[in-house]
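FW: tagging you since you asked about this chain on Friday. Here's the raw sequence from the shared folder, copied in full. Didn't touch anything.
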Amino acid sequence: MRLFILTESKFIYPAEVVYQKVLDIIEVGAVSAHLQFYIVGNQLPLTHQDLYTNYGNVTLLKTHQAEKLIGEVTNAIVIHFGTELKGSSQFPHYFIPLSSPSLKQNISWLSKWKQQAIFKKYIKKSATTLCINDWGIDSLRNQYPSLANRMQEAWLPVSLLPKLEWVDLSETRNELSQSNNYFLMFTPVDNLIDSLKEFSLFKKWQQTTMSLVFILDNHKQQEEAQQILKGYRYQEDIVLKTLPELKIEWLAAAYAVLLDGIDFDKTSIIEWAVHYDIPLLFNESQSQPTSWLKAGEVFLFAEKNALSNHFKLYYKDEMYRQSRAKMGKEWFVELTDHRDLNHFVKIPTDLKS
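HL: got it, structure written out here
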């Protein structure tokens, strides 16, 4: 069976998430001798090219090469994260959504409408839309109830994250925050001012070199955040990055990860942070299902002094920080066991041509 996995997408995801999911799919399928993988992309990073081609049943293709080849084969499956391959309509397509246009902020109504139309088209054209966790399928079914029956929860283990040594993490901190320890925070730009006020309280309490790295959705939000930072007392300790730039190393080198205003689009990030023993702090939200509450500490960020007190607690009490990371690890083992026991469709070994 030939599996064409398309690494590019019409939707904005961190490229690192897509490339890692492709590696996870290859690893699961490596046990099946009948599977031949064709990884399709015009800008695959060299590091991932090397990882993919460690497997004997993997071939890397540019898009034009894949379009030519798929017109010559008789038995194939297409797996994608929000795109299409010219000439492949005769074969089953499996769509793996890693986010949803409905979750995007700070974009025009027209842009969101166009993105949603494309998103719905991919769901309708797929043999099945594969949601890789319960948060994803619940969220998407609520957003697109008329298409709920076209979605299925699937099982894709997080299998091959990079092994990072102390020197790797030190280099990451050097590049990202001038060698300082840092809190990594995913937040809407609208909540930035309140977060900065709370960070100021923390910095006043303790003269520390600790930095705060904000991950914003796009460059427009980054530019808005830069304007907000003008005149901020501790701006030398603030770093602004965008979601498409995200690297696994940023999570692994963080002191703690804070998640504000998130949905299922950050579930891979949650799992990766837990893998590297990084504690998670969640802004209390109705979107977070019960099954994900034990991944970290949940509280209301908007409550006065809540964030600053947690900054202080995690900074001064290493044992507490480690205990929160351990809690996340235990949660992930429990979640993994649940997925295994429920016999969800396994990507790619259970997919039908």
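FW: The two ends are 8 Å apart (CA to CA).
HL: agreed, and Residues 318-341 form the longest helix (24 residues).
FW: great, closing this out.
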